[in-house]
Amino acid sequence: MEPSERRGIEILGQRLEYPDSPWGAIAVGVLCVLGGFVAWLVVERADPARLKELGYVWRSISVQPDDDLEVQAGAYRLEFWTPSARTKDAYNGRDVPEKDKWEILQDETKVLEFGDKLKADARVEGFRRFEEFGHGRTDRKWGWWWIVGVKDDFSVRDLIRLYRGHWGAEDRIYIETIRRRSEYASEGSSPAPER
Predict the structure, then answer these.
(1) DSSP designation for 64
(2) Residue 39 DSSP one-character state
(3) C-alpha distances in angstroms, 140 versus 82, 108, 133, 137?
(4) Count of alpha carbons within 13 Å of 17, Cβ hemisphere only?
(5) Residue 54: is it exposed, middle or buried by C-beta count within 10 angstroms (0-12/13-18/19+)?
C-alpha cells in the first residue's frame, strides 16, 4: 500500500493506522472499554470522604469510648536524637571531643527534664522516645530517638531553640519532619509557619 492510501489518523504529526484485522479491532475495543471502566470508577465510585484522605502520610486518631474515631487535625511529627546515659559508652575511656561534651550524661535526669519542657508547651501534643543505637556524623553510640507530635504553630525553629537551650548543643542538629499530607517544600522552608 502506498503511504497516501493507508487508513488512519494523524495526531501531532504521528500517523496512527486503523487495525487491519478483527483481532486488532478487538484489542482497540478492549482498551476503550478498560479506559471507560477506569473513568467510571473515578467519577461514579469516588467517595468524597475517601478523596479527602488522598496524600495522607500518617494520621493521629483518638478512639473515643463509644468507638468513634476522632482525627487530630492540624499537627505533624518531629523526630530527632538526644543523648542518653549510655551515650558516654561510645568513647570507651577515650577523650570526648569538646563539641560532644554536652552528650555525656551521668544519669537520665536531664532527659526527663527535657521531656517535661516539651510537654509544658501547649503546642506539643505528646511524645514518645526509644533508646537506640546508631551511627551518624559521629561514632556509633546509644541515645534516645524522640517522636514528638506537635501542632502546626510549633515550628522546627521552636524545637531548635528548646533543644539548644536545654542541651547546650552548638553543633548541627538532625531533625526529621513528617507531615499529615504529603507535600513539596522548597529547600530551606519550614514545614510549619515560622513565628
Answers:
(1) P
(2) H
(3) 14, 19, 7, 9
(4) 10
(5) exposed
Residue keyed to cell 510549633: 154
Instruction: Quick: pLDDT tens for 48-67.
Output: 666 555 555 566 677 888 88
pTM for this predicted structure: 0.62
- pLDDT tens sequence across 140-186: 889 999 999 998 899 999 999 999 999 998 888 889 988 765 444 44
The region that residue 176 occupies, defined by phi over 0 for left and psi between -120 and 50 for alpha, beta otherwise, is beta
3-state secondary structure at position 96: coil
CB 96 within 8 A of CB 104: yes
160, 179 contact by CB (below 8 A): no
Give the separation between CA 125 and CA 148, rounded to whole angstroms. 8
* Grid cell listed for 135: 551511627
- Which amino acid type is present at position 87? T
Q: How many residues does the chain have?
A: 195
Give the number of other CB atoms < 10 A from CB of residue 130: 9
550524661: which residue's cell? Answer: 105
**Distance between CA atoms of residues 108 and 85, nearest Å:** 6
The 8-class DSSP code of residue 12 comes to: T
